[in-house]
């Protein structure tokens, strides 16, 4: 007779009983074990963990042994390891400044009240007073030094976007903001020396720049390849950061245009995926931006045996309530086929 319940132990967090076929995350939360999580649809990667003993069904990622707890069904006794990340907190902020970086990307600086800890590459949920919540990836400054107590966002303006269209209009400096986070597992792991391959399209450069900046602060001679895609030359709002990157001896920057520009025949054309370096098993890849691009980079990384952390950006849908449902129907299902470690959805509207 098959067993109906199993013992689950999560290192440094606790143990509990789970029903056969119950998702690991649901079983943990129902037992009072607060595993990190956010979307619960298999996309954000916040619930990524390692199965050190036992077996689950579903929720696999590109990294052997790593699963997404919200999708992994308990099939035996389990021993689980969860990477330590800063706790999710809620805190108040105000809009400090809004400045256009390009025609459709705005830099929004938030002055934070009190200390706040997050890792390079993680994201936060931001609710401007009177507007629905959106998820954004804080970034390092494109120019100049880091400023304590400030969260820097790079927000893509979307036509008729409920939030992005209000920037500089209804949302002005002094506007009150509620921030919750951090979330996500596509963050820079410190202390590693492997080559980094960082791939971004559009505003997906925000977490990529945060990761690159932190990696070079830790190890200036680390080998890094940054591949950045844009629709046109005017969309390379991140040019100041790219110039900073090429100053490092082992950092290569590849800027890619979607369509050819006769004024810039030296720039490669196509998708960032078309211009990836030959990946090696020891590489660590981060891909952030358009879901299709992120999916394609993940497939190349998986074929090469490289570790991959992904961050697919998708437009927001109405209010925060029900945000994930339409996303899951439209985008998450095909992305789940990759079961990529560290994937998340980010609203840009």
Describe this structure in words.
Pfam families: FAD_binding_6, Fer2, NAD_binding_1. Residues 6-86 form the 2Fe-2S ferredoxin-type domain. This is 3-phenylpropionate/trans-cinnamate dioxygenase ferredoxin reductase subunit. The chain is an alpha/beta fold and 349 residues long. It has three domains: 5-81, Roll (Ubiquitin-like (UB roll)), CATH 3.10.20; 89-183, Elongation Factor Tu (Ef-tu), domain 3; 196-336, 3-Layer(aba) Sandwich (Rossmann fold), CATH 3.40.50. 16% of the residues lie in helices and 30% in strands. The protein has five helices and 18 strands. The chain has helices at 24-30, 205-218, 239-246, 291-304, 324-336; strands at 5-10, 14-19, 48-53, 56-57, 66-68, 73-74, 78-81, 89-100, 105-112, 123-128, 134-136, 150-156, 176-183, 196-201, 224-230, 251-257, 284-289, 307-312. It has a six-stranded antiparallel β-sheet with strand order 11-10-13-8-9-12. It has a five-stranded mixed β-sheet with strand order 2-1-7-3-5, with helices on one face. The radius of gyration is 20 Å and the shape is globular. The protein starts with a strand and ends in a 13-residue tail after the last helix. The model is unreliable at 317-348 (pLDDT under 50).
Could you give a quick summary of the protein structure above?
This protein is α/β, with parallel strands linked by helices and 349 residues long. Helices cover 16% and strands 30% of the residues.
